[in-house]
Design a protein that fits this description.
By secondary structure, the chain is of the alpha/beta class. It has 2 domains: 14-40 and 288-390, Alpha-Beta Complex (Aspartate Aminotransferase, domain 1); 47-286, Aspartate Aminotransferase, domain 2 (3-Layer(aba) Sandwich). It is built from 12 helices and 17 strands. The strands form 4 sheets. It has a 7-stranded mixed beta sheet, sandwiched between helices. Strands 1-2-3-15 form a 4-stranded mixed beta sheet. It has a 4-stranded antiparallel beta sheet with strand order 13-14-17-16, covered by helices on one side.
Length: 391
């Protein structure tokens, strides 16, 4: 039997990992500034995370939600405190797509309405309703298409206001990534987020902040929405929540009351997933990782903005994107193959930086040295420099 071949894979086979580094089958180290789509939040195989999982495995690794599991309550209390949302409620699931699917379903249950506002270039996961709400045509099968979705331009306050004026009585929810990930690290304007909040209040709609990639401390605050001083009704989480162990969840406003059996999951909230997420929160606190994300992010963005070859450096904390001129091929490949630095992309000319939140200064500098070298060696930039010299 072969694997169902649906992934574009790098010519790189990994065997081990530690901290901000992964190692191939020849034990060559690669600086990991992508973390498997922003999943690695406290570093690969952090000792506390490993010990937490091993200890939990020796007690009970799984039971369903048909019984009480104390570790779920421990996680809820810890998460509420670290996130600054003590009065919120926690629903646990397995992934970001599942979190957003349940968030949208819950909003519809709560409001009795059926339409959802989402935005251009968004990505909310690959399950049915989450995919319909996103803006990724290549991933969308005919069965995923829905006339319940109203897709608006990102950061267009006027279009949003017109939409609510026309259809507000039918809108169950607005879902937005405060910082778009797959869409290319596009940051929502504070005014735009405030308008969403005000319109949801006015029309009785639910504000869903998709923090699957940008949340859990990555932006330098626990939720990226916090930068705008705005509160959502539901926050969806996953990726960095478990540092590689599959876990997702919703933080749900106390105004939304639980109704028995409306939501459910077989594996969500299992003891191993809770242990992994508790370990992440404990390390984030002990090592001040949100502060580190802010400081290292500011350092990297300041340095990147000084490189004349780069365009539109943007992001918050350790969620950074920048554009390369459309004529420039292969920078990501050169970083990987020549300098052993792994980065992400969004389209052909957007580089995404999503490292562990405990990124060290020396590794930030290593990336910048490699990027400067890759740019200086690029044929397009060499040609441009020669043209300027002869001008």
């Amino acid at each position: 039997m072969k694997l169902f071949d649906v992934y574009t894979r790098l010519n790189l086979e990994l065997e081990s990992a530690r901290g901000s580094y992964v190692y191939d089958t020849h034990n060559k180290p690669y600086l990991d500034l992508y973390g498997g789509h922003a999943v690695i939040s406290i570093g690969h195989n952090h000792p506390h995370w490993v010990n937490r999982l091993l200890s939990q495995m020796g007690k009970i690794s799984y039971y369903s939600n048909s019984v009480r599991l104390k570790i779920q309550d421990e996680l809820a209390q810890k998460l509420g405190r670290v996130a600054g949302r003590d009065t919120f409620q926690l629903f646990l699931c397995n992934s970001g797509a599942e979190a957003n699917e349940n968030a949208l379903k819950l909003a519809s249950f709560h409001t009795g309405k059926s339409k959802v506002v989402s935005f251009s270039s968004s990505f909310h996961g690959r399950t049915s309703l989450a995919l319909a709400a996103g803006d990724c045509e290549a991933y969308t099968a005919p069965v995923n298409k829905s006339d319940r979705i109203i897709r608006l331009p990102f950061n267009d306050t006027d279009a949003l206001a017109r939409c609510f004026s026309d259809s507000g009585k039918d809108i169950a929810a607005v879902i937005i990534e405060p910082i778009q990930g797959v869409g290319g690290i596009r940051v929502a304007e504070p005014e735009f987020l405030s308008t969403i909040r005000n319109l949801c209040d006015e029309y009785g709609s639910v504000f869903i902040s998709d923090e699957v990639q940008c949340g859990f401390g990555r932006s330098g605050k626990f939720f990226a929405l916090d930068h705008a001083g705005v509160d959502a009704d539901i926050y969806s989480m996953a990726k960095g929540m478990g540092n590689g162990f599959p876990v997702g969840g919703l933080l749900i406003s106390p105004q939304i009351k639980p109704v028995m059996n409306q939501l459910g999951t077989t594996f969500g909230g299992n003891p191993m997933a809770c242990a992994a997420s508790l370990a992440v929160l404990e390390v984030m606190e002990a090592e001040n990782l949100m502060d580190n994300a802010r400081q290292k992010g500011d350092y990297l963005m300041d340095a990147l903005r000084q490189m004349p070859e780069l365009e539109n450096v943007r992001g918050k904390g350790l969620m950074i994107g920048f554009d390369l001129p459309s004529e420039v091929p292969g920078i990501k490949k050169d970083l990987r193959e020549k300098y052993r630095v792994l980065t992400g992309e969004a389209g052909n000319n957007v580089i995404r930086i999503l490292p562990p939140l405990n990124l060290e200064q020396k590794d930030a500098e290593k990336f910048l040295i490699g990027l400067r070298s890759a740019l200086s060696e690029n044929k397009f930039f060499k040609k441009t420099v020669k043209q300027k010299a002869h001008a």
